[in-house]
Write a structure and sequence with these properties.
Blueprint lengths: L1 H18 L5 H12 L9 H5 L3 H10 L2 H10 L16 H40 L1 E2 L3 H14 L7 E4 L6 E3 L5 E5 L6 H16 L2 H14 L4 H23 L4 H15 L10 E3 L4 H12 L8 H35 L26 E4 L2 E6 L12 E3 L3 E9 L3 E9 L5 E7 L5 E2 L5 E3 L3 E7 L6 E8 L7 E9 L2
Parallel strand pairs: 2-4
Antiparallel strand pairs: 1-2, 3-4, 3-5, 6-7, 7-14, 8-16, 9-15, 10-14, 10-16, 11-12, 11-13, 11-15
Helix pairs in contact: 1-2, 1-13, 2-10, 4-13, 6-9, 7-8, 8-10, 9-10, 10-12, 11-12
Length: 483
Amino acid sequence: MSIVAALLYLVLRLCIRLNQKHFTATWLYYVNVLIYAFYLIPFYMLYSSLDQDLLKAASNRFTESPTLNKVLSITDSPDWKADSFAVPHESSFSSMLLIEFIPYMLVAGTVIFLLVILFQNIAFHRRISRLCEQAEDPIILNELAICQQKLGIKKEIPVYLSPYCRTPFLYGIGKPRIVLPATMDFSGEQYHQIFLHELTHYKRHDTLLKCLLIITNAIHWFNPLAYLARCDIDRYCELSCDEKIVQSMDEDERKRYGQLLLSVLWNAAQQKGGIYSAFSNTRKYMERRIQMIWGNKPVKRKKSALVLTICALLSVACISTAFAYSGSQQAIFQTDASPKASASKAGTYIPDESMVLEGEVGTTIRRGDLIFERIGNDSHAFPEKVDAVLANTSQSHLIKKSEGDEYCTIWVKNEGSRHVIFTVTKASPSGTVIPGSIVKIPAQTTWKISTLQPFTQGEYYANFTSGQAIMSGQVAFTFQKKE
């Protein structure tokens, strides 16, 4: 979602630079809002409903591919050697844990983002409530009533004067109010223009929309383009509001409205992160607003430019969502397409390049220096003496401080509800990984793991982790001296 929205935003920026004179601020405002919706709505999931058999068909094509058949035929050759296949690097275990931790990092970032915004707005609300006084000036109330009647707004919206703020703005969602700077004196006409501007924001529900944009930005806090897109939406929101107001003004009224914005500019205090609609902003942006106000004329839209822009946006949306969908499915195909132990027979070694141990009872898999054999959960082959019990979410057990020339057999019974990541290390739980030992043992399965090479002198550890799920099961170790 984040990539799709970012691509659409970049295309829109390019189109605006090429065809800026053909678009109104209102049109640009709502198009930017529509594009921002791609940050929140997983449009790529629509592709899955177009072809329900897509995943199944692709999986079948892969399993019938010559490449897979070639891999399976190699394992039946008497000249086949396990060493000819790549052994997972010892850093893959830590990389896998990092990948599983990424979703929690993203959620933590979103929570922190929202908490910061929440505390900022609580502090701002307290300062406004403590210092504001409700306006009772008849000129203010009369102009407010005229503007409400003109825009068809029946809800009572109070006006407050605050010495803390130096720019008019609309504040609040459930109980909106207009806050005016107490340090500035406005004429009746200026009050009229200010109220038209702020009440237009209220009528369009801009404060609620800004709140939704902040929540969406919090979800995509890691994407810098999400911040830029939200900033553009805020600017076009103000420009479109000005555009609507000045449509009914003559040239002199537009100049006076521009002078009002300039006078407010020098008293403006930058307000960041608040859920309100500011009447002014930075100086550079204010210059753009003044130019738009004084030069605002009915835009003659060229149908070719509009059609071209819309087609470009739709094309990028379709292509990028298709890539997002196909990319997610490709990961599934690759996982499902790895050589499966279930295709083997007892005693036949298959280089399972995936990390998941799969297969029926009797399946044998060779990985690096280890042989994995699945046995029944109630098998009498499992030792009566249990050396360790699986519990918590992560733990390590000392297999033995070997004096060398010893073969080891590790028995693992996973009785939990989730797979357990298993690895054997030397010297310490975070030491050198024994080649082939990084695997996922599925839930409710029992495996016998035997070493092909005898242990050299040193300490060996069996390590287990399950992410956030509590593990359950038994572990046993047996040894045999090299003859």
